[in-house]
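Hey team,

Filing this mostly as a record. A colleague (T.K.) asked me to run one chain through the structure pipeline before their review meeting, and I want the input and output archived in the tracker in case anyone asks later how it was produced. No errors, nothing strange. Just documentation.

Input sequence:
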Amino acid sequence: MPKEQLPEVELYSIGPNEADHAAPLLTAEAVEAIKNGEAFGMALVEDGEVRAAACARLLPENEEVLELISLYVAPAFRRRALGGTLLMELLEETMNATDGGLRWVVSSFMPGTEGVEPLLAKAGFRMEQDKQAVSWKLPVADLADSPLLQRPAPVPAGCSLHTLEELPDYCLRQLVQELTENGVNDLTVAEMRQAFQNSSYTLLDQKNQPKACAIFSKAGEDGVYLSQFFTTAGNAAAAMAVLQAGGKSLLTQLPGETVLEIPTLTDSSARLVQKLIPSSQAAHLIRAVLELAAP
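Output structure:
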């Protein structure tokens, strides 16, 4: 879109101190990433009102790649090129900051996410289906008759189940450390405190060391998703214990029509979901890729 056709707007950086204020237009993941200094954000203001926000980060393993974590335009102001304007400015700022070293921009999102695919396609992104990343969805009510809740799942000997609400912060820090050491740390302590704490479980051994966890967080207005799942050494009994405890709690605490989403990144995880919750429907994530012209 030519510059003269763009809406008259103002753009502001979103830093750690502003991240919470931008939360209505950014995902929880984006807010935490900005606050932790792992990503940067930008807000678009029109007529004195924030109407769009974006968050991105340079990949630590390859700073030629920019990952678009979040891009959102308030519903009342869509189809006015605000999202495209924000994206263009974000890329321009990043190119300047990297002295033109940026080569790729990537973003992953669910099929049907309102407005995202047309916006990125118009900006020149190529759409690919991510063959490994799958999101499984089902109504919470379907858990009642699933093998996940019908199978016996005794707590392994010497271990105890605890909800996140029951755990003090030092135990959550131990959990984050354990997850980090195993390369699967998707949540911070603060994000765990924002999860469904009564339906999220961790399994501790006799030394209060975490052996497994299943953490559920809010997804949109009427959904919930498995935001963190982990077991030490692939312990099947530990996995069943935390998943079944969480599933039973979701069933009693949430309306039956609430959509449960379970993301998987490996074939083994996908097979486990199919086995334990066969009524779940699979949707492959879409990966959008923009290759920038070389200098």
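Quick notes for T.K.: The longest strand covers residues 126-139. The CA atoms of residues 115 and 271 lie 31 Å apart.
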